Amino acid sequence: MRGPAMMRMRWTVAAAAAAAFLVLAVASAQPPPSPPAATTNNSRLEKAYVALQALKRAITDDPKKLTQNWCGPDVCSYFGVYCAPAPDDPCQRTVAAVDLNHGDLAGTLPEELGLLSDLAVFHLNSNRFCGSLPESLRSLHLLHEIDVSNNQLSGPFPSQLLCLPNVQYVDIRFNNFCGEVPAAIFDKKIDALFINNNHFEFTLPDSFTNSTASVIVLANLPRVGGCLPSSIGDMAGTLNELILLNSGISSCIPPEIGNLDKLTVLDLSFNSIAGTLPDTIGNMRALEQLDVAHNQLAGEIPESICELPHLKNFTYSYNFFCGEPHRCLEVPRIDDRQNCIAGRPDQRSGEECISFLHQPKVHCDAHGCIAPPSPPPPPPPVYAPPPPVY
């Protein structure tokens, strides 16, 4: 998930999410000269001073000296701190954003961060913060973006995020969070959810398809499990990218997935997905990247998929497909290795393909899950012959 495709997805989503940050940055790039802090600091900035000084004390290593100028009460001049007029009182300045991305900072996150009550953007990705997210974050009711990815944070899923009414962008990937992911996170009206590369263990809840996010990444969570529900088509109004690779999902691909006509990226690779590729995927006219590699899929590749007008990358290697239309070979980039396609290079051995064909046929239940094989019919009753008559 750290490759070019992931980076492309990351910036596709972040472009919209970073708008608030850019506005704040421009607004604070040339702050007007301030009179002495003692006469201008309002109560908001005084609380921010307490919070930021607590954060500085909790930082145990600052190799890039990002917080070197965090001295004195003029918090709006601190590196990585951005001030703007308070939303409820434009005459007062307040701390609206903290951005210390890629700082290689080590330390913990103190409870005093909850004093930043007007914070809209909180970016701490690519550092070495450990411990858990402070409980006081639940009081940041204006928080719009939180990105603490690529750190060493741990503990259960930060339920504080469920209490934030305005959060739109949640990125906690590449940490050590563990345990259940609350189903309520999929009921929140957020735009992007990145929780991949942690140690969560849960089953896709029924509320999964309630999500209004445009991007959902649950990759490299091999203990997720569950099925792709037929209600996945209900996400058509907003969903743009869905990344579920290596998530332990044992499922069929429901035909209703074809309703996702805004989806550009679909990655279901490295799971236990079986059955066939539904030809309804040919209705997903915006699709650019489709990856179903390393599953148990079989049958023919539907030609309608390879006719999608924007499809640039179609990967279906390491399955048991037995045929592909010639049109698929015209997709800019395909990978059909290790299947059972006659005449194509680097395919499975005949023994592997025959053995797979002799396995019981996969059936999917009404929920999109792989149904257990039907029990064999009972043997016919055996009647003992009547005794001979003398």
From TrEMBL:
It holds the Pfam family LRR_8. Residues 51-83 form the Leucine-rich repeat-containing N-terminal plant-type domain. Its main location: secreted. It comes from the Eukaryota. Keywords: Cell wall, Cell wall biogenesis/degradation, Glycoprotein, Hydroxylation, Leucine-rich repeat, Repeat, Secreted, Signal. GO terms for biological process: cell wall organization. It is found in: Secreted, Cell wall. PANTHER family: LEUCINE-RICH REPEAT EXTENSIN-LIKE PROTEIN 3-RELATED, LEUCINE-RICH REPEAT EXTENSIN-LIKE PROTEIN 6. This is Cell wall hydroxyproline-rich glycoprotein. It comes from Paspalum notatum var. saurae.
